[in-house]
Amino acid sequence: MTGTALSGVRVIDLAEVWAGPFGACLLADMGADVVKVESFPRRSLTRPLVPDARVADGPGPVYERVDSQIQGNRNKRHIAIDFRSEGGAGILRRLLRWGDVIIEGFAAGTIDRAGFGWEAVHGINPRISMISMPAWGVRGPYRGYVALGSSIDAHVGHVSLRGVPGGAVEDVPGGFHTDATSPIEVVFAALAALNRRERTGEGSFIDLSQAEGFAWALAGSLAEWEIAGRVPEPLGNRDPHVVPHGCYPSAVPEQWVVVCAETDAQWAGLAEALGHPEWAEDGHAWASAAGRLRAREEIDRAIAAFTSARAQADSADDLQSRGVIAAPVAAPSALLPSPQLQHRGWFQPVDQPYFGTRLFPGFLWQMAPDPPEYERPSGLIGEHNRDVLSGLGYGEGEIRALEEAYAIGDRYDAETEARLGA
Amino acid sequence: MDQPLAGMRVIEVGGTIAVGAATKQFSDFGADVVRVEPPTGGELRRTPPFSDDRPHLDTGAYHLALDTGKRSLVLDLETPSGREVLGRLCSGAQLLFVQLPPEQAERVLSVVDAESGPSTIAISAHGLDGPYAGRAENDMSMFAWTTRMYRHAVEAEGEPLRYAPNVATIQVGATAAAVGLGAAWGQAHDGTRRHVDVSGVEALAGNVDTGYVDWVLLGTERRARGRMTENYPIGNYACKDGYVMFAATLGPQFQRLCTAIGHPELVDDPRFNEPIAKSQHWADFMEYLGPWLDARTRSEVFHEMQAHRVMVAPVLDMSEVADDPQARARGSFVAVEQPLVGPVTIHGAPFQMEEAWAARPSPRFGEHGTEILDALGYSRDEQIALFRAGVTG
User: Which residues, other chains included, contact A257 with Cβ-Cβ below 8 Å and sequence gap of 6+?
Assistant: First the structure.
């Protein structure tokens, strides 16, 4: 049993890859009944037939072992339909009458051409809300433009901020932060629409530009221009008004540790760890936050000498015991040994049919009295076709006819590929 | 206006950027948000930049951007008097967001009526319990724990980098907002008061872009590798007036790109038509792509490439984002008339829903003290007593 706060809320997830599907997961974690509608016989980008770098070892179909598919689809029921076919479109229409919220992430205009734009959806069920979430939204001159998360990161200004001072823009790697921010906005948007429907009885259309959903996190950097009149430059790990504020090497290559002292008390703890408590005593130039600003390089060298002689976790633990802000730059393998995450029971053992039980990252929040749980792992393709369709009123004969017509399916193979070609 | 959260009351405690980000979404979508301010003003009001570079509790960037439409009440919650006021405030509220060190948070949460009080959301770096619960963290050190920073660098095996300031922190706040709205929905429908514990590390490391799943399923720990010249074009490329970001490595994308630059024949060229050969001929390919880019502005590259459905976008800096044609057409930025500062351009709605979102000015420090205490039934003599005792501001 997972959370129950959203019991009775019905969600149709028509999105692919990460941003939309994971938003639907988060609603499911709170108890919403989410039906994931996968494309058939055309496959999603996260359902390859041939192994690539994202596919885990194991038996069974390649498309059931893809990390990017498995990450964003827990706690849902999965159906696979061809909604461009007559039979598939009929299923989607029944689903729309059943649902409270539909989430779709096609390029702007695509869903309208398939006959399921907002007006059509609203006509089928005036109480359902629809979230359309193309990169730059539905409206505007970039309507229909194609993007990945890195395109949005560039366009909202984040690429201009992520490098090191004076560094080359070519070296700034692509960033996919909107894959993390958009799902959160999907949840807020869906619930905002449900709240309004409580008063009006009507669903709402939500034009969720993934650019806008992320951009507001750059409030401080925008103000650097809008309020202070300066074009913000990349800061690296520095803070213009806090010394020390940096990332330092440890005794082990590629293991780094973050150290910051924002207050005099934190600085006193750091000075003590470095073996120079006098650096924090009255009269010493570095005892003052203003004085430390003038000695950034010298202080950074002293900290680097300390951290370079120790393992990253040892530095962080020692400094934290003295009240200093410090953390290892954790590689994925460093999360599992974290006593904190273990204490919190964060890791989730999840049994997937084709590669057994693995420890997955836990939930974004803990909730009492009804915590999120893995009620279902990521579903297999078409796993719940019968369950969902019979719930919508389809009889067994009708379901078999839909299968024979390739309007629904539960596998991708040469036969379905050939069908796609035709 | 038909604001979706009209009629909802939300209380925020702690004065941090994360808690301010959490309740901003409620305020702008119509809820009555009371910002209970620590007497120091807290992190959010003290974080730069400031108007004229003069530090002031009413002119900081995060305050102007994230406190929109809220009401401000200064209250010392380390005193029984302060907690009594908070208790009264909570009795009419649907949600209470708190970010404080664990012991202080527990004291604040204890004023909430266990049956009829609002659902509560505690924000912290590591959660309210466990061996790291008391650790001092900030935006960067929390981010360091999440596997993101490990993968973010400008050179292979180089120093890991944070994102832009407070991007991680605001993601934590937005996560708290989302689950908080879920808890409020639940309480309104099943009567169950919920408590939510949002650990920033868990909220970020558990999101879909976590590198941890790659490690679990594939045994890989990816780090940044600098410029990608094996599979291309991906990443930032110079053009006439700046840079554009490409994501056009995959088969159909690469094919359309070759067509867009007038060289459709390159798709069948043995130097580029299969992955291993392609990985050895980046410099050759740049002889075609480089001059094409040199002759065009970012905007020209963007629109010409998008006409061929190639994933490319201009790299904009913060002086350019609000003037972008798409942003202008959509109203992605709004100007808010702020007391003491004047009109300030801030980011607009995180999603667009008709008549749902509006940003109003941010409140001066303690602006609504009397108004709120009057409504809670405190007489003016009682208000003076609280003020004189240093509880209110």
Answer: A247, A248, A250, A307, A312, A315, A316, A326, A327, A328, A329, B144
Contact B351 A188 (CB under 8 A): yes
Residues 95-114 of B with CB under 8 A from A: none
Report the residue of chain B nearest A206, measured CA to CA: B353
Give the E-state strand segments of A105-232 in sequence order. 129-132, 205-207
B155, closest residue in chain A (CA to CA):
A171
Buried b / exposed e over B313-322, threshold 16 CB at 10 Å, is: bbbbbbbbbb
pLDDT score at B222: 79
The whole-angstrom separation of Cα A264 and Cα A291 is: 11
> CA A352 to CA B229: how far, in whole Å?
36
Query: In chain B, positions 294-333, which contact chain A (CB-CB < 8 Å)?
Result: 306, 309-322, 324-326, 329-330, 332
pLDDT at A414: 84
Answer for the pair B288, A98: CB distance below 8 angstroms, yes or no.
Answer: no
Q: Which of A52, A227, A300 has the highest number of chain B CBs within 10 A, making it the mutation to test binding with B?
A: A227
- For residue B66, give the nearest of B176, B170, B200, B203 by alpha carbon: B170
Residue with tokens 């749980």: A373
Q: Give me the pLDDT at residue A1, please.
A: 84
Note whether B343 and B336 are within 8 A (CB). yes
Q: Which residue of A has its CA nearest to B144?
A: A329
Residue range B2-23: mean pLDDT, rounded: 98
- How many CB atoms are located within 10 Å of the residue B168 CB? 29
Chain A residue numbers with beta carbons less than 8 Å from the beta carbon of B180 are none
Sequential DSSP letters for B223-273: ---SS--SS-SEEEEEETTEEEEEE--SHHHHHHHHHHTT-GGGGG-TTTS
CA distance B249 to chain A (A): 12
CB pair distance less than 8 Å for B194 and A369: yes
Pick from A5, A25, A162: CB nearest B183:
A5
Q: Which of B225, B226, B206, B224 is nearest to B216 (CA)?
A: B206
Kindly list the residues from chain A whose CB atom is less than 8 angstroms away from the CB atom of residue B139.
none
Helix runs in A114-170, H state only: 118-124, 149-155
pLDDT digits (tens, 9 = 90+) for B91-147: 989 999 999 999 999 999 999 999 899 999 999 999 999 999 999 999 999 999 999
Contact B320 A157 (CB under 8 A): yes
Q: How many CA atoms lie within 13 A of B92 on its CB side?
A: 13
- B356 interfacial to chain A (CB closer than 8 Å): yes
Predicted TM-score of the model (pTM): 0.97
Q: From its phi and psi, is residue A109 left (phi > 0), alpha (psi between -120 and 50) or beta?
A: left
Cα gap A175→A257, rounded to integer Å: 22
Kindly list the residues from chain B whose CB atom is less than 8 angstroms away from the CB atom of residue A253: 157
Decide if pLDDT at A357 tops 70.
Answer: yes
Tokens 């979508």 correspond to B29
Helix, strand, coil in percent for chain A, rounding step 5:
40, 15, 45
Predicted ipTM of the assembly: 0.97
Q: Is residue B224 over pLDDT 80?
A: no
Residue B238 CB coordination number (10 Å): 16
B101 min Cα distance to partner chain A (Å): 13
pLDDT over 90 (residue A419): no
- Nearest C-alpha neighbor of B126 from the set A9, A338, A181: A338
CA atoms within 13 A on the CB side of B60: 18
